[in-house]
Write a structure and sequence with these properties.
This protein is mainly beta and about 250 residues long. Helix content is about 5%, strand content about 45%. The chain has two helices and 19 strands. A hairpin with a 2-residue loop joins strand 5 (about 75) and strand 6. The protein starts with 18 loop residues before the first strand and ends with a strand.
Length: about 250
């Protein structure tokens, strides 16, 4: 693999050809301790997402895994930090959301767009049983009818996370998957470009491929969904460590 251009890892500020920037965050507004996110420094731009005790994806199917932002999220050293761990038999994650200026009215949402470009710089400890599915979820909540888009997605201990386009339709397994052949243990920049009829995934500035079949075409909201028990592989009680988001930038179609 050729060397990654260092410029790819710099926070991109400003519009791009065909794209108007609507959100940017580098977490330089100050530290926030666990239990206080978003706090005064970030409340205008962030929500902590699902409340403490809310079942995550696996929790909804019977696993003892839940969202606990008050025990997971903090800001340290210019990064959003997930402290992923288990307490009292409950594996804990969090799914914060950016507040994106938009015209969503049905329902009104602070993190919704119809088409967009989403770019994140991230790194994680290899925590088997914890996972990311940073995703676009349909505002309609009609899934799989209105599809879903994920990137990066996988268990944090995997050797290759991926981007996925869950196609609009009746079969939740009908998905285009694009593997990155990269692990979470190094810094990477993942970018999704969602346009009419196409979702293209980029890792560190290089295209992994694009889904072009039955691509979602209704407004979707963005969630940094971080949880546990992917494919029923749950973390062992002593598994604990960190996932870091260095920066995030979002654009709408210009």
């Amino acid at each position: 693999m050729p060397a990654v251009d260092p410029a790819v890892h710099k926070l991109p500020k400003g519009d791009l050809p065909g794209w108007k920037q609507v959100f940017v965050e580098d977490f330089e507004g100050g530290d926030v301790p666990i239990g206080a996110f978003p706090g005064p420094a970030y409340i205008d731009k962030w929500s902590a997402g699902y409340k403490d005790g809310w079942p995550d994806s696996a929790g909804q199917t019977g696993q003892n895994s839940r969202y606990y932002p008050s025990k997971v999220l903090s800001v340290k050293n210019g990064m959003l930090d997930w402290y992923l761990h288990t307490e009292n038999g409950i594996s804990m994650g969090a799914a914060p959301t950016p507040k994106i200026p938009n015209a969503s009215t049905n329902p009104p949402r602070a993190n919704s767009l119809l088409y967009g470009r989403y770019s994140v710089r991230f790194k994680a400890d290899p925590l088997k049983g914890f996972k990311t599915a940073w995703l676009l979820w349909p505002d309609s909540k009609m899934w799989p009818r209105d599809g879903e888009i994920d990137f990066p997605e996988s268990d944090l201990a995997t050797s290759s996370f991926y981007g996925a386009v869950h196609k609009m339709g009746k079969d939740p397994r009908d998905t285009d998957v694009f593997y990155a052949n990269a692990s979470f243990t190094s810094w990477h920049v993942a970018t999704m470009e969602w346009t009419p009829g196409r979702v293209e995934f980029f890792l560190d500035g290089r295209s992994l491929g694009a889904g072009t079949s039955r691509v979602p075409n209704t407004p979707m909201h963005y969630i940094l969904q971080t949880e546990s028990c992917m494919f029923n592989v749950c973390p062992k009680p002593g598994t604990a460590g960190h996932l870091y988001l260095d920066w995030i930038a979002i654009w709408k179609r210009g």
